[in-house]
Design brief:
single chain; seven-stranded mixed beta sheet; binds fe (ii) ion
Length: 266
């Protein structure tokens, strides 16, 4: 875990990073909204669990946490979930039912502590209104992006992330060429199917999110992106289906192995 920082008033980022060999560091963020009915968005990686909990509870009394939005079931979003639920008796999980089913391969969430949502749903939590959306790129069918109508923040889960070298807090501080290169890599790495999609259909969720006019875009795997820069990420996302599928390096060259098998001995 790294030291927490703020992305807006009472909006704390709990940051870590996953080294990706040959590419750099993939940021791994969870977020805490401390005002009103406090909301935690995602719960970090299992390898960071103790540091994540120390960082979280240094910002908030566990008794005060009311909501844990789990954007999807991947381990980098659910690492401390059971421990947070144990420590915070008033907190309920908000997640998609498919994500909950997939999480149940590893742990259960008591039914009375669970509220399920689909893209298109809205919920009011105190004076905050949250709407749920399907982000354009995702690597779990249970993925939800969340828009907070009270302050204009879009929590985009895996989507709109990047891989860059070193510290990543604010888009404005980053080398843009490096950011958008990492953006094209990560959004295809988590969704290689973007090379197969109908581009017009792919644009629908991009336009839906752009129509919200987010004041702030927070990816679990990216820096804080503010107002004027946000449309540039929507533009970059719109180009993703025009790119070929991205694959990591591999030791096994399947085509070479097949060629060797098929060529006559001698
Ligand atoms: Fe994921
Ligand atoms: Fe993720």
């Amino acid at each position: 875990m790294k030291a927490s920082y703020t992305a807006g008033p009472d909006l704390h980022v709990l940051p870590s990073a996953l080294p990706v060999p040959g590419l750099g560091d993939q940021p791994v963020n969870a977020f805490l909204l401390r005002s009103g009915q406090p909301v935690l968005v995602d719960t970090g990686m299992p390898v960071d669990r103790e540091g994540f909990l120390d960082s979280l509870w240094s910002l908030l009394d566990p008794a005060d946490l009311r909501w844990i939005v789990v954007t999807h079931d991947d381990r980098d979003h659910t690492g401390a979930l059971t421990r947070v639920l144990e420590a915070a008796p008033c907190a309920k999980v908000l997640a998609n039912a498919t994500a909950v089913t997939r999480m149940s391969e590893e742990f259960g969430i008591p039914q009375e502590r669970l509220v399920t949502a689909n893209p298109g749903n809205r919920v009011r939590t105190g004076d905050r209104e949250l709407s749920f959306h399907r982000p354009p790129t995702f690597d779990s069918p249970g993925t939800l992006a969340v828009f907070d109508h009270s302050d204009g923040t879009l929590y985009s889960s895996d989507s709109f992330g990047t891989v860059v070298e070193g510290r990543v807090q604010d888009f404005a501080d980053l080398d843009e060429e490096e950011f958008f290169h990492g953006f094209e890599v990560l959004n295809r790495a988590i969704a290689p199917w973007t090379a197969l999609v109908d581009e017009a259909k792919f644009l629908r969720p991009v336009r839906e999110l752009a129509a919200l006019k987010p004041a702030r875009l927070l990816s679990a795997h990216g820096p804080t992106v503010r107002e004027d820069a946000v449309p540039r990420l929507f533009d970059a996302m719109a180009r993703i289906p025009s790119l070929p599928a991205w694959l990591p390096g591999a030791d096994l060259d399947l085509e070479a192995a097949l060629d060797a098998h098929e060529s006559p001995a001698g």
